[in-house]
Amino acid sequence: MNNVVQLTLDSYQDLFSDFDPRPYSERGLSDDFLHELKNAVREVSLEDFELILSLPAKERDPELEKMIKERLHEYFKKHDQFLLKEKRELINSGIWLTLIGLGIMCVAWFLSWQESNKMMSLFRVILEPAGWFMSWGGLDRVFFLSRKSAHSVVFYKKAIGAKIVFVNV
Fold first, then answer.
1. How far is residue 3's CA from residue 49's CA, in Å, rounded to a whole number?
2. Closest by CA position to 164, among listed 47, 32, 4, 22
3. Reduced to 3 DSSP states, what percent helix, strand and coil does the chain have, rounded to the nearest 5?
4. pLDDT in tens, 121-147
5. How many whole angstroms separate alpha carbon 15 and alpha carbon 33?
6. What is the CA radius of gyration of the chain?
7. Strand order, beta sheet including 3-8
8. Is the separation of the CB atoms in 76 and 41 below 8 Å?
9. Which of 14, 60, 112, 124 has an alpha carbon 20 to 30 Å from 149's alpha carbon atom?
10. Could you tell me which residues come within 8 angstroms of residue 1 by beta carbon, excluding any fewer than 6 positions away?
11. Which of these, 30, 6, 2, 1, lies nearest to 169 by C-alpha position?
């Protein structure tokens, strides 16, 4: 395989949060482990990715390793789906904000024809900036905020397809 990421662990505990007392099958993953993994995975391509976790031979337990592999893949899939859903919702809300803002600006444009009426003029003055603000805020969500998590999305896509292997140090 071209793309191999190898991390050395002192024990299985290095994979999981120190603050979570639940069993490994339910325990949250360690932020330190995820941070190191994200940094290491950044350099590999999407295809043929292999994660090698090295442990001292006396620490290894094949049954526990099988459960940890399943747990890691489950975690990666869950977070990938969460990020994609979050991005989709952000884009949808941005589109709606933009459309509402454009609608408000159309109302303000219509009110500009009623300049002789002071009340209509006041509404136009209030609606115009609101429409611009909503339109630009919506476009910001669609084009910029939705791309903020792009690195995480790429990481989880790579991690989902990773082959996870435990070896002796």
1. 5
2. 4
3. 65, 10, 20
4. 888 889 999 999 999 999 999 999 988
5. 6
6. 25
7. 3-8, 49-55, 163-168
8. no
9. 14
10. 48, 49, 50, 163
11. 6
